[in-house]
Amino acid sequence: MVDTGNGAEPGGRAAARYVGIAAELREAIMCGEYAVGSQLPSETTLATRFDVSRGTVRQAVALLAAEGLVGSRQGARRIVVGRERSQSFAELNSFAQWAQAMGYRVSGQVLEQRRRDADAAEAVRLALQPGDQVLSVLRLRSLEGEPVMLERTVYAGWIAPAVERIPPDCESITQALYEDVGLVFAYGEHLIDAVSAGVEDSRLLVVRRGSPLLRQRRVTTTHEGRPVEWSDDRYRAGSVTFSIRNSVDANPLVRQMGDLRLMS
Amino acid sequence: MVDTGNGAEPGGRAAARYVGIAAELREAIMCGEYAVGSQLPSETTLATRFDVSRGTVRQAVALLAAEGLVGSRQGARRIVVGRERSQSFAELNSFAQWAQAMGYRVSGQVLEQRRRDADAAEAVRLALQPGDQVLSVLRLRSLEGEPVMLERTVYAGWIAPAVERIPPDCESITQALYEDVGLVFAYGEHLIDAVSAGVEDSRLLVVRRGSPLLRQRRVTTTHEGRPVEWSDDRYRAGSVTFSIRNSVDANPLVRQMGDLRLMS
DNA sequence: TAGTGGTCTAGACCACCGA
DNA sequence: CGGTGGTCTAGACCACTAG
């Protein structure tokens, strides 16, 4: 009974039972065993099949619902609403982790890096005092050798030394910071809109001035809620698309008017 | 004991206890009673305070976690990570409902509407047979009198009659379809990217050709997973921003039996 | 009306955090 | 080490869906 029935994580840590059950169901959905639009077995049936309580089954299907794979309504059986899992946190926060997951060859290059004082807006976003030091970095990211994204990041001063130790051609900053100082990017807030390519944008991304760019601005924080970085990432049009799946019960995304005070 | 402690919904339906508890905590967070970065009371404390079981408390905080307001790590108290709720399926799926919730004056105008046969791509997205009839609609949406979004929607043939009954200047199609035939948009899949304004785009949105537009393509389905519409919406740059808050806890779940949630 | 998901309880044990 | 969240159980009742 100690065995979870799904083995242990590669890291050696045991997986929760419901995670394994979710994985099994997810696999069945992605393989088409449960077709899109069809019903899932009832919770009671699944509880019997996996020999767990109904609560554990509900945890498993909650996971699938969060991924946008299944939906539910009281009184009716759960149905399959999709076959592809929508983006994970890592995919939204780390360009390299997303690209690698998609099987792309990714590279990055630091073009500029310097310490300076935080301006008022940055101080607010990074929870610093105005005048505190920050590290400003300009990076060009490429996919399959093609430049696709320009990243302007401002790191809080306390993490600057670790960032400066990262080689300029490092692929994944997220991973480097984790391996170096154990920093985990735990929460993110993202603003997505479209902008015209400026002078620097157009030169580095090799597009015409004024051509459309997909912009993702974000603040990333640690587990403790401590802001680590504030970034403005601009993608060449056509190179990247954000995908979101939602349901009337769960939805991670909202629209906002253009003139945001905090995040301009 | 029948009273939920939080009254009933306006519609007359009783609210779940955990929803009321979440509302109370949410209010406290938004009012700054629990500051961003500070800790929430422990689950046990909250269970005592609200006189419910720990499971119910966990459902409540799961709701807040899904909204991106709080985060958690095993062994440590939950912390507040944000003050603004990012929520509502309606906000992502219905332009009018989003705008109205934000307090904006919204309007819409049908510029073109006609039935035709579905092409191959549309048939796939709407789960139709190639050659089945669809209803193609071009709508211009305005905010505060300013045109901000151009909507090119293809409705599955089975809902076409109801769509055709909608007045051309109707503000909310979502609401109209609900009131007319009880149709509920339950699930959505969205693709967000940036494109250049084409000839028609630039004329109707009053922007220069080639200027950046934020594009949201989406498929919306019913509770049963039946596709209703496929739409290509283009926003004038600067008019609208999408916002997402996410967390590394792939695990949107929480609780002992409920579901709910995220995205990322 | 039978089946199903939604809510809730009152326990239990464990892994992890911080002092 | 005590406190905390994460996981899990085995019940219960209700609201809703579907035949």
Automatic annotation (TrEMBL), chains A, B:
**InterPro entries, per this entry?**
Bact_HTH_transcr_reg, Chorismate_lyase_/UTRA_dom_sf, Tscrpt_reg_HTH_GntR, UTRA, WH-like_DNA-bd_sf, WH_DNA-bd_sf
The UniProt record lists the HTH gntR-type domain at 15-84
Would the keyword NAD be found if you checked this record's keyword annotation?
A: no
Tell whether DNA-binding is among the UniProt keywords: yes
An example Pfam family from this entry, by short name, is GntR
Q: Give the keywords, sorted.
A: DNA-binding, Transcription, Transcription regulation
Q: Which Gene3D superfamilies match?
A: Chorismate lyase-like, Winged helix-like DNA-binding domain superfamily/Winged helix DNA-binding domain
Descriptive protein name? GntR family transcriptional regulator
Species in which this protein is naturally found:
Streptosporangium jomthongense
